[in-house]
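seq/struct pair 1
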Amino acid sequence: MTTLDHGPLAGDAHGPGGPAAVPVAPAGPVVSGASAVPVGPAPADPGLGPGPGPGPRAGSDGTAPQAPRRRTAGGDPVKSLLHRHRELCERAVDPLEIAAGLEAHGITDRTAARFRHRDVFSLAEELYARTPRDEGARPVPAAPAPAGRAASGSALRRVGYSLLPGALALGAAATGTPWAGPLAVLVTAGALVWPGRVAGGRFPRLAHLLAAAAVGWAVHRHGPALGAALALAVVPGHLAAVLFAAGARRRLAASRALEDFADGARPLLAGTLLLFTAAATGAAAVTGAALATAVPLAVLLFLARLLLGHGSRGAPPVVALALALVPVPAVVTAAAAGLLVHAFLALSRASAHARP
């Protein structure tokens, strides 16, 4: 075996008199005493496998790192819609209120298909079912019977109020009291236009003022007979509005699509309008007012009442009532016809019949 003379090694216990030659292995360690210094790469331990790579680092608390989460492919589209309309869903007393609110926000049956529902009504049912509610925080009615009697009493009071304009107008015509005529005009305008509930905002208040001005101006131009005819039309107007609201709620409960409700609401509105027009024509005939003047103005006031009572905050009722101040009968008729078209579009929507 070939040997190489390296001289004395540092730290050699034998000193100069020790062995002077160390065998050299091609790839092994150089041994000096009991120590071994590796020259080449150490072989991997078969029990440990390959050395550590650039994997995820352990946490600062020594816990094992967590694997990254995978995103689900499907998702929950209804959950985002629930978050967006949470206030509407929490306030609703039934799924119909949610359906009406969704339609008011521009969601149609075609839009509901993107949320995996066939129509807005089924989408509203899921939103209503998934809305968390604190049942304990809701006030529980102690006695339903008194509440029903209170509602009946309120309805009777409203009917009594609707009788007041006719009584004032007929009394003023019979007695010739000078101050009773203007008072009847004001009460008539308020009763014809003021609904049971009214939307907030400046447009409804302006509509009430314009209605009073239109009735007063018409009575001033055409005589007290017109005021008496409008006053007598208040009662059928009130009853027709109540019947229309109740019928629309029933159709809304029975509908399963927005188009179905619209198809049923339009004939209901047409029948209600024909009923009131017949009553207004009869009132004008009884009092001797001109039909061409009394009936269009009565229909105009009745349509304004319906729109304001069903949440209309827009300008069409205000514009139509402002046109009624023009001293031309054809303008009043045209204003009533234009408001009728708007009423058929607005009152055939489910959102117009949501509870306040």
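seq/struct pair 2
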Amino acid sequence: MAQAKKSKPASQAPASQGLVSSGGDSTFDEVAAHAQALAQALWDEGADEAASDGEAEIRDLLVTAEYHGQRADKVLAQGVSEFSRNYLQQLLADGAVTLNGKPLAKPSAKVNVGDRLRVEMRPTQQSMAFQPEAMELNVVYEDDDLLVVNKPAGLVVHPAPGNWTGTLLNGLLARDEKARQVPRAGIVHRLDKDTSGLMVVARNRATMDALVKMIAARDVSRQYLAIAHKDWGPRKHREVNAPIGRDPRNRLRMAVVDLAVNAGKTARTDFDWLAGDDQRCLVRCTLHTGRTHQIRVHMASLGHPLVADSVYGGQPQGGLTRQALHAFRLAFEHPVSHKPLVLHAPLPQDMTAALDNWGLRYNPPESL
């Protein structure tokens, strides 16, 4: 495959590979000969364009015989192999790739020998997302190896479609120079946007690897406080051991699933009643696994959707407009010093106000 690249002078054409088919097909040979001549022209054209454009970089790829009949996205990955496939997929989605002068609408389209792929190496939303953004972060613990933040409700943890900026990751990059040297700025687990509470963040790669292993081995204790609809009933302690996967009726949410029928993963949560009346309840939730929306799904499966959790059947009440869930306790052995760390975050103002509105008493020591 021939390619144009602004780092090389226009007088040097790249060596072409696979231009003559091994089977001696005369049609391929003829097209390949034309392709070799076109490669030089494309090289000169691409180099001149790159030289005149101080910002954008254009890559021109000429499909040679060895790539005949392959998927366009695979040919693209071979032609600009120094970039990740994820990045190239973003370029495809952004319309930055053309095939024979027309936008490449289907990455799976098959290419023919002599076809021309042109790629504009432009910044994508995702590539621009991982930038420092100064923001106030509530750090409840910090040392040379890790920190623990108390995330407010409404703060997205990681850049994603719809939230490319203003995330916890952006704030960590601005706060800590070390964060730039660690994948995902050291984030090893997540909280939903509208869930508040404690998150541990690594400050170096060794600590990050250790924390990931600890979480996978369930050596990190995570407990939450949740306010849910309906009277809890006489059983103060309940254990839910029910697999969670994509809801087969609504792919935008999760659900308890039958693993014999649907894809999913095992999930276990323990629940303990702390306060309540005949319309709502405050419960402590202890995670034993970390599935997407685990507490929200398990509570809904018990007939107790969280207050204001519209995705799983909850309704706004008591002034709460976000799901009433708060990660209030985090406990683990420090991966470097091996000292026990037990950290707490007080119930946020919106959940406290709701309990006060209902006349429910919350005693923090009783929740430990």
